[in-house]
């Protein structure tokens, strides 16, 4: 007789006599676990797609437009009704894009400079958004810790009739799997799955040990063989990396093979039935099929350092941000080169200016003059050419002042009194720009000139001086 992992099938029964099956079995698939893997999209998993769309499209946009709308309608916002009488107020900077920056900074609690709104209602709305951000970040952080735990991944096949195995070329890249040629498993696959059998020839192994070793090393994605044998090898794996997946196929049993018409078949069948009835076969199966692998065996590895693939999602997020920033940089250049110049020339707070420039006082003509004056006060040359030109202008100014003093002395020697000529400063011009009368450009100038000529000359001087400031 023959006693081994001999599966009962019709081909073998044609040449030998089998005893009663002493253990059930079938065709199973063994794969290896890949431990320590974190999904590249783990940072998105705390919320589902609908929740992310609700936060990104509804919550952020609604908060941004409400803050901007309340600030626009506020008396201290777009019309600046509360600040028009005060000329010393600092230039007001707030727009739709600045509102977006404020909303994102509050959401991520970033310590960056933001232009805050002035209106009470818009500030209250900003505080409401800050409260929402606190609750949202608390929920996200609490759930993110659960999704960032290292996981065990494996190829979860449903069984031998899995489409990825039955049609191996339909999946790219194809899975690598094999079995032992000329075995019961090989003949069954050849009988029912022709395409699979043809594909497996390049990955077949000569022994079960070789097939399991290749699965552990990653040379094979799966190994197909007798389910009971594979269960035994899985239990004997000390690292607990092996596991059988899917349902067993072509269920049958192990039997003792005897020569045809053997007189010992009935004897063994009687004893096997007695062993099964009193539970001896089940006790033997539990004793011998239990291996060294135990649940919780891998707990001592929890303090191992993290590998690159375990926080790959952070790098993917960074790379996506860099690519998006490069695209925004290109759009920024296009905007400042072709669009912003035209918007900045308009003396008013139109819709385009409200989106990008500023609402309120800084959009008016005087506000632009204030900004230009501040820039001139803080201007510093950044290259030698600028220094050279600046030195030439200062030198010409000094020589002009010296020539003026020489002419004044010459006039005094001839008894001619020098007229007290005083040009109005740029601040005087700006303070009287909204009045209909013109500021006195000449002080005690006793020259023969009509009022109309004097007005025309003062108006041209005012325009020239404003152009110089701008």
From TrEMBL:
Family (UniProt): Belongs to the glutamate-gated ion channel (TC 1.A.10.1) family.
InterPro entries documented for this protein: Glu/Gly-bd (IPR019594), Iono_Glu_rcpt_met (IPR001508), Ionotropic_Glu_rcpt (IPR015683), Iontro_rcpt_C (IPR001320)
Organismal lineage: Eukaryota, Metazoa, Ecdysozoa, Arthropoda, Hexapoda
UniProt main location, coarse: membrane
Keywords: Cell membrane, Disulfide bond, Glycoprotein, Ion channel, Ion transport, Ligand-gated ion channel, Membrane, Receptor, Transmembrane, Transmembrane helix, Transport
Cellular component, GO annotation: plasma membrane
Cellular location(s): Cell membrane
Residues that span the membrane, as ranges: 52-74, 94-114, 126-149, 311-336
Pfam families xref list: Lig_chan, Lig_chan-Glu_bd
Membrane topology, as annotated: Multi-pass membrane protein
Protein's name in the database: Ionotropic glutamate receptor C-terminal domain-containing protein
Disulfide links within the chain: 240-293
GO molecular function: ligand-gated monoatomic ion channel activity; signaling receptor activity
């Amino acid at each position: 007789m023959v006693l081994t992992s001999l599966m009962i099938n019709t081909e073998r029964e044609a040449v030998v006599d089998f005893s009663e099956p002493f253990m059930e079995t079938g065709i199973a698939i063994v794969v290896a676990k890949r431990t320590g893997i974190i999904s590249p999209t783990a940072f998105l998993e705390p919320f589902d797609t609908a929740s992310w769309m609700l936060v990104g499209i509804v919550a952020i946009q609604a908060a941004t437009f409400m803050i901007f709308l309340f600030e626009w309608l506020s008396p201290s916002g777009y019309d600046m009704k509360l600040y028009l009488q005060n000329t010393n107020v600092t230039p007001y900077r707030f727009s739709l894009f600045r509102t977006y920056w404020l909303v994102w900074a509050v959401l991520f609690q970033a310590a960056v400079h933001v232009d805050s709104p002035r209106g009470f209602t818009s500030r209250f709305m900003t505080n409401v958004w800050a409260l929402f951000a606190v609750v949202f970040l608390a929920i996200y952080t609490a759930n993110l810790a659960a999704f960032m735990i290292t996981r065990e991944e494996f190829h979860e096949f449903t069984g031998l009739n899995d489409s990825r195995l039955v049609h191996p070329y339909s999946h790219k890249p194809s899975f690598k799997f094999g079995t032992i040629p000329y075995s019961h498993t090989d003949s069954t696959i050849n009988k029912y799955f022709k395409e699979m059998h043809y594909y497996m020839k390049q990955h077949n192994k000569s022994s079960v040990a070789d097939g399991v070793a290749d699965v552990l090393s990653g040379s094979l994605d799966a190994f197909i063989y007798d389910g009971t044998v594979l269960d035994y090898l899985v239990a004997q794996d000390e690292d607990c990396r092996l596991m059988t997946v899917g349902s067993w196929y072509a269920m049958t049993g192990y039997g003792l093979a005897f020569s045809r018409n053997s007189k010992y078949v009935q004897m063994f069948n009687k004893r096997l039935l007695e062993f099964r009835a009193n539970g001896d076969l089940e006790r033997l199966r539990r004793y011998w099929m239990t291996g060294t692998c135990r649940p919780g065996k891998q707990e001592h590895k929890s303090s191992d350092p993290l590998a690159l693939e375990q926080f790959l999602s952070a790098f993917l997020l960074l790379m996506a941000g860099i690519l998006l920033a490069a695209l925004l940089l290109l759009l920024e250049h296009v905007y400042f080169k072709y669009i912003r110049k035209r918007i900045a020339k308009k003396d008013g707070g139109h819709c385009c200016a409200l989106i990008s420039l500023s609402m309120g006082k800084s959009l008016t003509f005087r506000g632009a003059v204030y900004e230009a004056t501040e820039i001139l006060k803080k201007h510093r040359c950044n290259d030698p050419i600028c220094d050279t030109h600046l030195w030439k202008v200062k030198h010409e100014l000094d020589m002009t002042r010296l020539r003026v003093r020489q002419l004044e002395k010459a006039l005094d020697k001839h008894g001619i009194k020098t007229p007290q000529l005083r040009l109005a400063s740029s601040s005087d011009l700006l303070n009287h720009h909204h009045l209909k009368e013109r500021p006195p450009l000449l002080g005690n100038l006793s020259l023969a000139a009509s009022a109309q000529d004097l007005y025309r000359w003062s108006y041209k001087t005012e325009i020239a001086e404003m152009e110089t400031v701008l």
